Task: inverse folding
């Protein structure tokens, strides 16, 4: 740990603040505060390299690089020149590009996007609302993540440039299903942003990466910002290498190629991102260059959608939240190795950008919250008691809630269980106890369906402050939980909860494994004692059961091996390599469905024909029930797709 701290003390470059602030003691204190909190958090999370910039009142107040751009070469991070992968923070450039074209009348926020495309987005919904005809998707819906698309984890990243899919091919061949009516549910969508980038490409007549370079980066003097992949030689040498601290040392990862370009392929420096923040804070202009008109910036920064007035929501591209009584618009970003956060406080003319590699996804949000506590301290909340009747009203909300950023038509549906479900329960005093991302918070009812977080150490996530939650009905009639930002959650039926799924799989597998062992031992003993071999119907029934068990074990072995986490990328290999589904995996689902039908038939015949003894029939029936339960779970979660 001392080695890490030494790295940051030895190889940190500080760019002095503007002379405008040089004599302002309070400004100097802010600089020192940011530097101290960054150094502390970097040590806490074992971060190998990081960069930060802070802007205020039209000036770059502070910028600094931490650690090593290249550990092997001992190259320090430079806030002016060192590039970091900024992930979904790149989306802000895409939305800025859209607003530029809206400003000149080439795009309309409320027009059917099919007007701008050379293929058609279907109007039919899939999933629980299958065959329902929905209204057209508009750019406004794309920008607020309310278009209603399902979302994928695969086909986001690759580690080799030859595995990249051309942008237009990705857009047309990886069209996700529409699962929500537009304008009703915030469900974060990488595809939606990529689609907007494709529209920019078509309407402008320029490749997307060239459009943003010519119309945003060049005017602002952002010479160390780029969407192109791989990086050109002039910027390649300035790219920070990404590392993760694992097994007591920093392990280097490869450059991550982002397939949906407009949704997350940006690389930038802290100095360049300061210019972009200033342009948004200063009515669309920076250093004499204008990328948006003042009215367009105001429109872009206004709230466009929220699930409830108590909550933050979405502007046209920015996530909106309230921190320490201040309205903040922001966007986070993450690749497998990098994490980024950009925050703007328009009414205070302040912006903060942080990017780093090595994990510690919440470092940037913790630094920002610490800055808000320093600049705008708030008093500790007064202890409040739940209103009368809140315990009874809260009972309907108890249960497990799963993210609506999900897939429902592909084998990725199971990721709903892996992406941080929210568990809600009540206590005897009428509070709601909410467990989310490993943290437990106590909420008090403000009005029916609206609750406030009482925990003093405010929790934060990708959405922003977890200060309030609101319950309402989603389009399928389930209870929806919203906490602000583009992530919402719907209450899962009991058969879709993590408890039912995990226990169902484990109990079924235990019965199947013990049965296989029992039958194997029985056959060995029969061979040793030279007992007559089973034949006819009993033998066929037993072999169907054995074949089912072996097929399940093969399927699960394949599934678990493909889903094992890489220690550096912290993602399953399938998430960043092209799919290589073998012939066996294609045959297994058909085989399992056929064998399940066989088990049902042989179970019925066992009782009809009185095969074996009573215990034997009960055992076979129990095995068949376990198989049916397992197949139900596999079918529901699309594991057999």
Result:
């Amino acid at each position: 740990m001392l080695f890490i701290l030494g790295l940051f003390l030895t190889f940190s470059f500080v760019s002095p603040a503007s002379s405008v602030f040089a004599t302002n003691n309070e400004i100097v204190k802010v600089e020192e505060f940011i530097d101290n909190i960054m150094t502390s958090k970097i040590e806490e999370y074992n971060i190998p390299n990081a960069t930060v910039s802070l802007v205020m009142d039209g000036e770059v107040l502070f910028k600094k690089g931490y650690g090593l751009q290249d550990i092997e070469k001992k190259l320090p991070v430079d806030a002016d020149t060192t590039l970091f992968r900024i992930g979904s923070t790149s989306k802000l450039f895409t939305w800025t590009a859209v607003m530029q074209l809206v400003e000149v009348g080439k795009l309309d926020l409320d027009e059917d996007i099919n007007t701008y495309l050379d293929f058609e987005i279907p109007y039919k919904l899939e999933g629980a609302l299958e065959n329902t005809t929905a209204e057209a998707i508009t750019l406004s819906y794309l920008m607020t993540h309310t278009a209603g698309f399902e979302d994928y984890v695969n086909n986001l990243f690759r580690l080799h440039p030859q595995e990249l899919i051309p942008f237009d091919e990705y857009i047309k061949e990886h069209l996700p299903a529409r699962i929500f009516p537009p304008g009703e549910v915030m469900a974060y969508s990488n595809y939606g942003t990529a689609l907007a980038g494709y529209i920019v490409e078509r309407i402008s007549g320029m490749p997307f990466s060239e459009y943003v370079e010519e119309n945003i980066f060049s005017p602002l003097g952002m010479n160390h910002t780029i969407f192109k992949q791989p990086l050109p030689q002039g910027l390649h040498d300035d790219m920070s290498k990404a590392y993760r601290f694992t097994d007591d040392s920093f392990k280097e990862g490869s450059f991550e190629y982002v397939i949906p370009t407009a949704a997350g392929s940006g690389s930038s420096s802290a100095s360049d991102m300061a210019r972009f923040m200033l342009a948004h804070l200063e009515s669309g202009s920076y250093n004499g260059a204008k990328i948006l008109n003042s009215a367009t910036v105001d429109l872009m920064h206004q709230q466009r959608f929220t699930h409830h007035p108590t909550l933050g929501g979405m502007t046209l591209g920015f996530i909106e939240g309230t921190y320490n009584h201040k309205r903040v618009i922001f966007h986070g970003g993450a690749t497998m190795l990098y994490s980024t956060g950009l925050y703007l406080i328009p009414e205070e003319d302040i912006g903060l950008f942080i990017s780093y590699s090595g994990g510690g996804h919440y470092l940037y949000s913790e630094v920002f919250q610490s800055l808000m506590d320093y600049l705008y301290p708030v008093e500790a909340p007064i202890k409040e008691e739940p209103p009368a009747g809140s315990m009874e009203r809260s009972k309907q909300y108890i249960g497990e809630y799963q993210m609506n950023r999900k897939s429902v038509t592909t084998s990725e549906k199971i990721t709903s269980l892996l992406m941080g479900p929210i568990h809600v329960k009540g206590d005897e005093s009428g509070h709601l106890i909410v467990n989310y991302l490993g943290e437990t918070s106590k909420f008090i009812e403000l009005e029916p369906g609206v609750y406030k977080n009482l925990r003093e150490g405010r929790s934060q996530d990708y959405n922003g402050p977890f200060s309030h939650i609101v319950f309402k009905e989603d389009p399928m009639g389930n209870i929806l939980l919203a906490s602000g930002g583009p992530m919402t959650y719907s209450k899962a039926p009991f058969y879709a909860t993590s408890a039912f799924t995990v226990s169902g799989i484990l109990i079924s597998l235990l019965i199947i494994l013990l049965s296989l062992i029992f039958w194997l031992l029985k056959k060995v003993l029969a061979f040793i004692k030279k007992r007559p071999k089973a034949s006819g119907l009993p033998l066929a029934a037993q072999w169907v059961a054995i074949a089912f068990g072996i097929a399940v074990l093969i399927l699960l072995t394949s599934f678990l091996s493909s889903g094992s986490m890489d220690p550096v990328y912290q993602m399953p290999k399938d998430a960043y390599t092209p799919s290589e589904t073998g012939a066996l995996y294609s045959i297994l689902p058909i085989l399992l469905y056929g064998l399940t039908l066989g088990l049902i038939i042989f179970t019925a015949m066992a009782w009809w024909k009185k095969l074996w003894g009573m215990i034997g029939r009960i055992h076979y029936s129990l095995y068949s029930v376990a198989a049916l339960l397992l197949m139900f779970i596999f079918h529901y979660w699309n594991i057999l797709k």
